[in-house]
Write a structure and sequence with these properties.
The chain is α/β, with parallel strands linked by helices. The chain is about 45% helix and about 10% strand.
């Protein structure tokens, strides 16, 4: 029997969604850097953008940066400290670092995919409970409310509010408790096996979506509806 048949054979009562890369688009490095430069009052010429992107990519694999990322979303303070260390290692000056950091707090940096609202609405209408499970350092509730999607979210499990982040099974177990469902009744949907795949350790079947190139492209949430049935 194929795995998809197994999942469809039982009624799922809940879906746990990752946020960035799953419900909202994460723009490429070049967009982040160019926008941060513009907001800092600097010209985002191609050569400067490319050089800064290369510097950030090199800094991202430094031992201290990679190690710090493991727990950086467990609190607001930890995330800011890690981010500023990362930007410093990449050679960003204080003004540009602050501009880049502030950009992550702006909804323009994470637009919803076109199939997000229809999928959340359909799950709500089917009586399927939904939790947002995200490694994040800010409250996402206002953003969902502004988009008119908060009515479809039954629980927000944000890492900085609980002091734990993916792939620790504890964050998924928190979501299950808040939704009042067992792991066998839930589906986790994300975009990174390294992080969202941690739900498997909590007994939750997990669907990893392939990345898409732009915010205008459906990310494939119709597959979630097919699994839920």
């Amino acid at each position: 029997m194929q795995p998809s048949t197994v999942m469809q054979a039982s009624t799922l009562r809940a879906v746990l969604f990752d946020w960035r890369g799953t419900l909202v688009h994460d723009p490429p490095h070049e967009w982040w850097v160019a926008t941060a430069l513009t907001r800092a009052g600097r010209a985002p010429d191609g050569e400067t953008v490319a050089a800064l992107c290369d510097a950030l990519r090199r800094a991202a694999v430094l031992p201290e940066v990679a190690a710090g990322e493991i727990g950086c979303d467990c609190s607001k303070a930890a995330h800011r400290e890690w981010s500023m260390m990362f930007f410093e290692r990449a050679g960003l000056d204080d003004e540009l670092a602050e501009s880049l950091y502030a950009l992550d707090l702006d909804p323009v940096a994470h637009p919803f995919y076109p199939d997000t609202a229809p999928a959340l609405r359909a799950l709500h209408e089917q009586g399927c409970r939904v939790a947002l499970v995200s490694d994040i350092h800010v409250d996402l509730r206002p953003e969902f409310a502004a988009a008119g999607l908060d009515r479809y979210i039954d629980a927000y499990v944000l890492s900085y509010e609980h002091g734990v982040q993916k792939p620790d099974r504890a964050i998924f177990e928190i979501a299950l408790r808040e939704l009042e469902v067992g792991p066998e009744d839930a589906l986790m949907v994300g975009d990174r096996a390294s992080h969202d795949g941690g739900a498997v350790a909590a007994g939750v079947t997990t669907l990893i979506l392939a990345p898409v190139a732009s915010a205008d492209t459906p990310v494939g949430l119709a597959r979630v509806l097919a699994v839920v049935g």
